[in-house]
Amino acid sequence: MLLRNQAVLWRELDGEAILLDPKEGCSYNLNAVGTLVWKMLDGTHTTHEIVNAVCTFYEVEYEQANQDVEQLLDDMRKNNLVVSSTRSPV
After folding, report:
1. H/E element, 16
2. Inside any domain, residue 34
3. Are the CB atoms for 77 and 8 separated by under 8 Å?
4. For 29-68, what is each residue's pLDDT tens digit?
């Protein structure tokens, strides 16, 4: 499971998240779907659970949501916005 990088600062404004990585001096903007994903990256949700939440809230097919979430997570990994959680799901 993935967890938000605790060094990344973030705020939600009008349903969209703004992320700031002070170490790299970079900022990132997430739309509403990305913000939902970001908020669920607390180390307690699996990718499958996150995809299901996207399907529920945005009425999208599972395969499309899965592809979009995986792409977003890959981008977040590349930018060191997330880390692997050592906790196992309950």
Report:
1. strand 16-21
2. yes
3. no
4. 999 999 999 999 999 999 999 999 999 999 999 999 999 9
Domain count, the chain: 1
Helix (H, G, I), strand (E, B) or coil at 75: helix
Inside any domain, residue 53: yes
Work out the burial of residue 79: count CB atoms within 10 Å of its CB; fewer than 13 is exposed, 13-18 middle, 19 or more buried: middle
Residue 40's nearest CA partner among 55, 62, 25, 24 is: 55
Which residue, 67, 6, 22, 90, is CA-closest to 54? 67
Asked whether 19 and 39 are in contact (CB, 8 A), the reply is: no
pTM beyond cutoff 0.85? yes
